[in-house]
Amino acid sequence: MQASVHSARHAANWTHAAQLGAAVGLAWGASALLHLPEGFWAVMSALIVLRPTAGATLGAGWDRIRGTLAGTLLGLAGVALRHVHGLDNSATTLLIVGLLAAASALVPWLRSAPLTALIVLGSSGMAQHPALQVAALRAVEMGIGVAVGLLLSFASLWQATARRFDLACAQVLRQIADQVRRDFAAPPQDAKEREGRMDSLRTELRALAVLAVGAQREARIAARLRRRPAQGEPVRMARIATRTLHDAGAFARHAALRREDEPHGDCAALAAGVAGALEAAAAQLEGGPPFDESARRIHRRTIVSSAHGATWVQPSMRLLMQDLAALTKRADTAPLRHKSAPRGCGAAR
Q: What is the pTM of this model?
């Protein structure tokens, strides 16, 4: 199973490599076909826009289009002011780029505007092309780059980013299971080492959230093209995966508060039960056996029996099983938590 997961990721990396190579060729070829003097600006824009998934590219492309348009218009206005009214070149450039840079901190989609304006304002006259015309040509070249990136994105909707999201989610669940085992290990894990592993897990969860946004955007686009409702909610699943980390971390409370005379075998059995449930859910996301109600019942019995009736285990186990069921069930709405169920219970923060 792990080999197939690695193979899927490897194939995705090679696909993105091919996309980047194709983007360079198409952007440069389109510029040459239109006899544009500086085709490398089209190549640069295509490489900036193109991302590993179509959903992420479409989001970046739309932001790039709006930012490029704003930067281009203000850049062209600055070039016109310089050449028509004789304003100082440096002062005009610094004023426009500075204002756009400040505005980009307040309006995220303007982040590409300062660079675009600087490129346009930095243009100078070429042979057979006055400065204002060169600025307009650069704007056209950057537009070609964005269009190439979006074209390759639409052509790559078959990549099934939702599948990549499932594999990434499964990897996170396996890392959480490994952390549970370490929390119950004897001797206890070093505090600095544990915090470092938790930081790594949080980083993985942030990357999973980014992938979820792209997967959900692609699902909606594919649904529109096929005229049927989109299936699955990756963004919701990414939030549930984050909750799962806290649910699993609640069991670390037992390891932190266990008495010195408590047999280590009990802790090891509890860790094995929690980690087993996490890995069973991960296996389904990777294409393995279903983590259905019967499987969850077995894991619940293992966890309860290993805890010897400890009262704090029940709410923690219930929350964990609800989240794992939501991750593997693929329901349109997440299972509702019981309002009286306490959150945290020693959850790792």
A: 0.61
